[in-house]
Predict the structure.
Amino acid sequence: MPEFALIDGVEASGLPLADRGFAYGDGVFETMRAIDGRVPLWPLHLARLAEGCERLGLQLPEAPLLVAECARATATAPCAVLKLVLTRGDGGRGYAPTHPSRTRRVLMRHPVPPPSTERSGLLLGWCATTLPRDPQLAGIKHLNRLHQVLARMEVDALGVDEGLCCDDRGQVVCATAANLFARIDGQLYTPDVGDCGVAGVARAALLQDPQFGGSVKVVALPRGDLARAQEIFLSNAVRGVMPVRQLGDRAVPAGESAALARAALARRGFAPAGA
């Protein structure tokens, strides 16, 4: 349960049963790290929200309103995880939205996850669940995350820290809740998510960083290429940069790219203690 929640600016603990986000996954969301009362990657979160709303035909709430509600949520807990959900609001039975619809805002505050083994390196496994190619919805964080739910169930069964997912062509897309970076034959790559997967906010920050982003190539990355990886790390807007020490049965060498990526996020103000 969240520590604190606002629905359309009012403290609440339950969502109306007619909400289309609940009934159809009709909406988008962002999960954000607040550090000392600020969301360092907020401009990138807002940009992805705007793109998601545009694709789904939702009205994006005014940015100052969203900022004010985030500030209210973190007033008594300056270091927290915020989840902002925008849905199409209430609607009747059936897929067709009721017009005109009003975007519903749901903001939840959760505690910061405890420190883990991330700095010493994650153990990754391969998920059998494939992610669907869908250019119409790829990149945005829409509310239908069933493939990620199924993949995460595999991760728990495998007893690893995270799992990598491919599309139906065997191209690596991402982890269940993070984007992938891999150094192969001396070159740093991250998978193209134009047809499949989520364009992560931490990933965007790294690609935009003038000192780091120019060293990264965005490509279609076959699964087999990771067998030659000289370094692998994951990026996530809550946990930041997470180096990988093992993928399946193969030990992954440590490298300097993860540290450089962490420094790039720190230049954006994302430097959470203990993460």
Remarks:
- Residues 42-56 form the longest helix (15 residues).
- The mean pLDDT is 94.
